[in-house]
Amino acid sequence: SELSRYQKQLKLPEWGIEKQLALKASHVLVVGAGGLGVAAIPYLAAAGIGQISIVDPDVVDLSNLSRQVIYSSAEVGQSKAQLAQRYLQNLNPEVNVSSFEVKLTSENAIEFIQKADLIVDCTDNFAARYLINDHCVAMGKPFIYAAIHTWEGHLSVCNMRMDSGKMSP
């Protein structure tokens, strides 16, 4: 069956078909397909998010390979966004993945953010975080950002509201 891929999470008492179908109907924008992005996006696809958009202008560098494990030596110089899209489509063909080889800017942020239900900032960049924050607050969209510093990691969920136990932007 279509849901057999998700049988382990469907067994969780807090989960169920309704929540799985809600994931399938959702759209997540991931900004950044580097160290943070490659840690997040496989799990989004594996969980069954219906649509994932990846925005990243960078290409794979040899120095990325020790921590950006979805890329290989043969892919050095290629687009991270396109490679991440291919990786996710192979991981879970049920997910609709789009890649955009551009930097998120004040000119294109509205276009990307307004289409998504959740924005995941994987840039570890203050300018991008503030840009995403400003647009998400203005549009009532939740977003998650993460940051890494040496051996520490930080994660924050912003602009999320809980109404009657149901998440809503």
Task: Report on the architecture of this protein.
The chain contains six helices and eight strands, in the order H-H-E-H-E-H-E-H-E-H-E-E-E-E. The chain is an alpha/beta fold. Strand 2, helix 4 and strand 3 form a beta-alpha-beta unit.
The end-to-end span amounts to 31 Å
Low-confidence spans: pLDDT under 50, at least 5 residues? 164-169
Content-based structural category: alpha/beta
Shape descriptor = globular
Cα-atom radius of gyration? 16 Å
Q: What's the number of helices?
A: 6
Overall mean confidence score, pLDDT: 92
Number of strands: 8
Helix and strand sequence: HHEHEHEHEHEEEE
Helix content: 25-40%
Major sheet: arrangement of strands: 3-2-1-4-5-6
Largest β-sheet summary: 6 strands, mixed
Strand content: 15-25%
Please name the defining characteristics of this protein:
169 residues; 8 strands; six-stranded mixed beta sheet; alpha/beta; globular; single chain; two-stranded antiparallel sheet
Task: Explain briefly what this protein structure is.
Helices cover 33% and strands 23% of the residues. By secondary structure, the chain is of the alpha/beta class.
